[in-house]
Amino acid sequence: MIAIVSWHGAEGLYSACTEAHGFTVAFQRTAVRRVSAAAQALIPFLDKPFCFFGHSMGALIAFELARELRREYGLSPRHLFVSGRRAPKVPLMNKRIHDLPQQEFIERLRGLNGTLPAILEHTQLIELLLPMLQADFAICETYEYRPEEPLNCDISAFGGLEDSHVRREHLEAWREHTSGEFRLRMLAGDHFFLQSSQKVLLEIMFRELYRLVRSIEKTAK
Q1: Strand 79-83 and strand 154-160: pairing?
Q2: Average pLDDT estimate for 68-76
Q3: Looking at 133-137, 162-166, 217-221, which range is the least confident one?
Q4: Number of Cβ atoms within 10 Å of the Cβ of 90
Q5: 6, 15, 56, 83: which is the annotated catalytic residue?
Q6: Rounded-to-integer distance, Cα 13 and Cα 203, Å
Q7: Which of 17-21, 172-176, 209-213 shows the lowest per-residue confidence on average (mean pLDDT)?
């Protein structure tokens, strides 16, 4: 059995969980923001081979979590799947939005095309979500990359062909963060291609995971 840990960016989905043996362990958002706390919370579930998947901000969290687990616990994911996020050492060129006035921030969210219009039009709901959304964007926009040795797990990167913010060359730079294999796939769609190209994305990930499982089984014999 392989544990899959998944994070999704603040612009769309808001989940952080690990699925193993049919159950889900959800983490408090505060723990996710603190990578060390997230790593500590995950340790009881990492007694088997595991992989990370992260989209947008989630890719950054997955990457930093992999480095934290290596530093503090000598553990490493078997595979890192990153989606819709520039490589950590590639600086963001977009204007900061996390500290914009509320209405301007909401309009920028609308332009990203990842938050349901019904949510943006629901005054009470958006007021509830706004602090969390702004905090998540602040993490991305104030992140400072610190060089370390490349990860020893394979990395698969995914991008949207119509994503104007994360281009092929930004994703290609993830190659420098692994001493293992690196694969890049560009799929139809914008920044949220993981919705429009979900079937293709899942098929690719299934093939990668199947290959990994077979490799682990051969090694165990």
Answers
A1: parallel
A2: 95
A3: 133-137
A4: 18
A5: 56
A6: 20
A7: 17-21
Q: Give the model confidence (pLDDT) of 124-155 as tens digits.
A: 777 777 777 777 777 777 788 899 999 999 99
Alpha carbon 140 to chain centroid, angstroms = 11
Task: Return the closest-CA partner of residue 169 out of 155, 154, 179, 159.
Answer: 159
User: Regarding predicted confidence, which is higher, 74 or 115?
Assistant: 74
Instruction: State how far the alpha carbon of 209 is from the alpha carbons of 10, 80, 90, 171, in Å.
Output: 26, 11, 28, 21
Using alpha carbons, select from 93, 89, 67 the residue that is nearest to residue 80. 67
Cα separation, 168 vs 184, whole angstroms: 8
53: nearest Cα among 84, 31, 25, 22 = 84
The answer to whether residue 196 is catalytic is no
Which superfamily is assigned to 3-89+144-220 in CATH?
Alpha/Beta hydrolase fold, catalytic domain (3.40.50.1820)
pTM confidence score: 0.77
